[in-house]
Amino acid sequence: MFNEHIFDYLRTDKLPHIWCPGCAHGIIVGSLVRSIEKLKIDKNKIAVLSGIGCSGRTPGYLDMNTLHTTHGRSLTFATGIKMAKPELTVIDVMGDGDAVAIGGNHFIHACRRNIDIKAIIFNNNIYGMTGGQYSPTTPTNYYASTAPYGNVETPFDIVKLAKGAGASFVARADAFHIGLLDNVIQKALSHKGFSVVEVMATCPTQFGRRNKMKEPYQMLDFVAERAISLKKWQEMSEEERKGKFPIGIFVDEQREEYVETYEKNVIERAKKGDR
Amino acid sequence: MKKRYTHKIFKNLCKGCSLCVHYCPKNVLEIGDDRKVIAARPDDCIGCHMCEMRCPDFAIQVHVCEEEEKEKVK
């Protein structure tokens, strides 16, 4: 179960993709395809959406039902698709800008509703496509084109945000630890309810070069060094945790799903004229 | 008998980022003169598939040697 059948799920005429050499977005797409293949989901029963940005290119390369939407609003389109066609597996691929900056509002409300959408967030800590401006997830003291003296802001913790907003499946993985990444995406795809997977990706061109990481592997090492398994994280002191982040599954619970509840409490009653 | 592996490399997809070269535990791969990856020492490969799964361009696949597959069938 490796990349043997990967081209069955890709639009091969669109390859090679536009992502920079060494960009981790391709690694995550590979993992997503392997997970879909492992779970034997029919590719005609999947809808993949994205917003704007480097991550927004993903649907273009996947041979499934795909939609490339406006910046930050992909969750609203995804909500519409899921409501109209609940039988589809709706995967929403977002960047960090899509999910927590421009689309932050849509994100927390999708979490609150617990609608059955799989949100995969490609977190590369920067706005890569538009020229390396710092994003809400750029770590403090790291450089970006709009932060020449280092970023002074505190970054968002997407896992805590999703947890607080009420998502029923929240996990974080990174592009280096492939085993965990495959595992987490498979669990998210088979979960019923709003699933958030934050994947720590890399941006060797815009983030790496500004932060003394010249080669793509240095950037991936930088992610791997900071990723700590959840078990080890709990034993660490506050001092040791500085600059690092935990990876693993944080929330996995069953709650009433929005489309089913809507069908039961609104559509059926409206058909009966019961008010 | 030790299993042997072949490396299927799609040169049109490879961008020469050298992630596979760096993360190979047995130092099997190299970047060639054309800035694309080549399997320089395929006999050392242990079939961990790390290059395959970390390749962002889907440009490399590791397969078990076909001759051995045939032997297995016999």
From TrEMBL, chain A:
GO molecular function: oxidoreductase activity, acting on the aldehyde or oxo group of donors, iron-sulfur protein as acceptor; thiamine pyrophosphate binding
Name this protein carries in UniProt: 2-oxoglutarate ferredoxin oxidoreductase, beta subunit
A Pfam family hit: TPP_enzyme_C
Keywords: Oxidoreductase
SUPFAM superfamilies, alphabetized: Thiamin diphosphate-binding fold (THDP-binding)
PANTHER family, alphabetized: 2-OXOGLUTARATE OXIDOREDUCTASE SUBUNIT KORB-RELATED (PTHR48084), 2-OXOGLUTARATE SYNTHASE SUBUNIT KORB (PTHR48084:SF1)
Entry annotated with the keyword DNA-binding: no
GO biological process: cellular respiration
Residue ranges occupied by any Thiamine pyrophosphate enzyme TPP-binding domain in the UniProt entry: 52-199
UniProt keyword annotation of Transmembrane present: no
From TrEMBL, chain B:
4Fe-4S ferredoxin-type domain mapped to chain residues: 5-34, 36-65
Protein origin, superkingdom: Bacteria
InterPro entries per record: 4Fe4S_Fe-S-bd (IPR017896), 4Fe4S_Fe_S_CS (IPR017900)
Pfam families: Fer4_7
SUPFAM superfamilies xrefs: 4Fe-4S ferredoxins
PANTHER family in alphabetical order: FERREDOXIN SUBUNIT OF PYRUVATE:FLAVODOXIN OXIDOREDUCTASE-RELATED, IRON-SULFUR-BINDING PROTEIN
Protein name, UniProt field: Ferredoxin
UniProt keyword terms in alphabetical order: Iron, Iron-sulfur, Metal-binding
Single annotated GO MF: metal ion binding
UniProt lineage: Bacteria, Bacteria division TA06
UniProt organism field: candidate division TA06 bacterium 34_109
